[in-house]
């Protein structure tokens, strides 16, 4: 998907976090993705150049800048994802609410286990 829209995987992941958050600071985005602040600045610069996000000064703190997705540019991404979304919705229909909750719980726990493992590697 990233290559199809001219981004790399890191940029696409950052764009996903930005889009889900509404607006986010570079520091928050770095923490949520595990990137350094320097790498995050570079990723945001690429997303701005590509037209997917924009920076907005915080009116209450001149040192802080928010990063926000540009909805007009996201429509092209949503169009690409639409067939996947439809297929996933069709898949969900085959599972009960209880089964989906159980699957989601497993995935959340598996993600937490993976995150703990990766944090341990970074501490070495």
Automatic annotation (TrEMBL):
Q: What is this protein called?
A: MarR family transcriptional regulator
* Database matches in InterPro entries: ArsR-like_HTH, AsnC-type_HTH_dom, HTH_MarR-typ, MarR/SlyA-like, WH-like_DNA-bd_sf, WH_DNA-bd_sf
Organism this protein belongs to = Caulobacter mirabilis
- The chain positions of domain HTH marR-type read 1-112
A biological process (GO) of this protein is: response to stress
Q: Which domain of life is it from?
A: Bacteria
Single GO molecular-function term?
A: DNA-binding transcription factor activity
């Amino acid at each position: 998907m990233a290559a199809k829209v001219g981004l790399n995987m890191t940029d696409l992941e950052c764009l996903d976090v930005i889009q889900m958050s509404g607006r986010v600071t570079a520091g928050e985005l770095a923490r949520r993705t595990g990137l350094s602040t320097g790498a995050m600045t570079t990723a945001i610069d690429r997303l701005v150049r590509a037209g997917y996000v924009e920076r907005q000064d915080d009116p209450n703190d001149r040192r802080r800048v928010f990063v926000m997705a540009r909805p007009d540019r996201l429509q092209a991404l949503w169009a690409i994802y639409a067939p996947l979304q439809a297929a996933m919705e069709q898949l969900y229909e085959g599972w009960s609410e209880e089964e989906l909750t159980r699957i989601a719980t497993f995935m959340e726990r598996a993600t937490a286990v993976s995150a703990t493992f990766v944090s341990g590697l970074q501490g070495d």
